[in-house]
Amino acid sequence: MLKGAAKLAPPSSKQDLRQPVTVEIIARIKSQISDQPLDIAFFACLTMLFYSVARVGEFTTRRRDHFDPVENISLAGVRTESDRNGFVTTVFTLPRTKASTTGEEVQWVKQEGPTDPHDALQAHLASNDPPMDGPLFAYREGHSHRPLSKAIFLRRLKATAKAAGYDAVRGHGIRIGATLEYLLRGMPFDVMKVKGRWASDAFQLYLRKHNQILAPYIQAMPPSLAAEFTRLAMPPVR
Predict the structure, then answer these.
(1) Residues 125-167: tens digit of each pLDDT
(2) What one-character DSSP code corresponds to residue 19?
């Protein structure tokens, strides 16, 4: 059935395949980055994007010399919350997103291993000390700070991924890979829909668009979840 879903994928999904960015790929990218301020900011941003299932433009600026607090997140937009059991969640308030001009919140919890976003963020803050009211991923350049632009982030992603042995990694693969990671961990599809901030039937359309990429990995799921993926990802029969 999964193969059938892939065959029935709309033509647009077959034209621009992107390798999902996985936890393993992020760990290998980490081994390729330097201890320079830009690379520390880049890696922190990468882990934020992945574990919060965010879009690249939501944590980066449009240009290298551009920062607008109305649309770009700053350090002031980061906070932690604890539940009654002591579990800590790091929350990011995005001032404006693709889906909402009034902003949205994304979050993650501490992870095990070298891709932990908490450790990456702390390393960035210690190394770059971004201003409270400036871009969150500002990095030191000379005697000042420079915003991490989308173009620079994508350039570093492509270069470090290639150095790690992955030629097909692109920015959109982060969100695809994050979706895959949480689904393989057993996150229900309705919870994943909320986590990724998909409105209405947008999540189903997203799965259909990328089912050729996701299908081979989804086979590692328990049968019930794999069946649910197939149900959602297969286009309706007309």
Answers:
(1) 999 999 999 999 999 998 899 999 999 999 999 999 999 999 9
(2) P
Q: What angle do CA 80, 59, 22 make, to 5 degrees?
A: 90
pTM of the full structure: 0.85
DSSP-assigned letter for residue 141: E
Backbone phi, psi, residue 134, to 5°: -110, -175
Burial (Cβ within 10 Å: 0-12, 13-18, ≥19) of residue 85:
exposed
Cβ–Cβ under 8 Å, residues 210 and 198: no
Q: Which residues contact 67 (CB under 8 A, 6 or more apart)?
A: 61, 134, 135, 138, 147
The reported pLDDT for the residue numbered 17 is: 53
Question: For residues 61 and 150, is the Cβ–Cβ distance under 8 A?
Answer: yes
The alpha carbons of the chain give a radius of gyration, in whole angstroms, of 18
Coil vs helix vs strand at 43? helix
List the one residue out of 166, 162, 159, 177 whose CA is nearest residue 218: 177
Which pLDDT does position 234 carry in this prediction?
Answer: 66
